[in-house]
Write a structure and sequence with these properties.
Blueprint lengths: L2 E2 L8 H6 L7 E4 L3 E5 L7 E7 L2 E2 L10 H17 L9 E5 L11 E5 L6 H7 L6 E3 H11 L4
Antiparallel strand pairs: 1-5, 2-3, 3-4, 4-7, 6-7, 6-8
């Protein structure tokens, strides 16, 4: 459990996207990551950044995953810029905490404009929810404890 090659998870929809087994419109990709639109967007711009290697969720992250998370964030910013998000200060990035992950494959949500999210989206991705952890908190926990709580 935890981490394995994407090809080892035939039942995982994000592994299928990473293996080009779907017609998903990939916005950005490289050897390690890919980014595509969320099929149930919580904001006008809502993208998912996914590692090609299967990692179950943010609770599986370890200290040695810090560079991966940082690269996921970089790709999140890149896709928002590519799609001409006008206010880069009005962005929310983070992960759902299990058991509130809709797909059991690590994925970073990049949402903008955060200030215009609906009440329903605020409940799923907003600062008051206990189901969503921001990138800053994930990185802080990994740096201080070596694992996400």
């Amino acid at each position: 459990m935890g981490t394995q090659d994407a090809s080892g998870r035939e039942d995982c929809p994000f592994c299928q996207i990473a293996d080009n087994q779907t017609d998903t419109d990939v916005q950005l990709s490289d050897d390690e990551l890919l980014c595509f639109r969320d099929i149930q967007p919580g904001a006008a711009h809502h993208y998912l950044v996914v590692p090609r290697t299967h990692i179950d969720n943010c609770k599986c992250l370890q200290e040695d995953h810090i560079p991966l998370v940082e690269r996921m964030v970089e790709m999140g910013w890149s896709v928002l810029k590519k799609n001409k998000v006008s206010n880069m200060d009005d962005v929310r990035m983070g992960f759902h905490i299990p058991p509130f992950s809709s797909v059991p494959h690590l994925h970073l949500h990049a949402l903008a404009p955060a200030s215009e999210m609906t009440i329903k989206s605020q409940l799923r991705y907003g600062p008051q929810t206990h189901w969503f952890i921001t990138v800053d908190k994930v990185l802080s926990q990994l740096k201080t404890r070596g694992k996400v709580k």
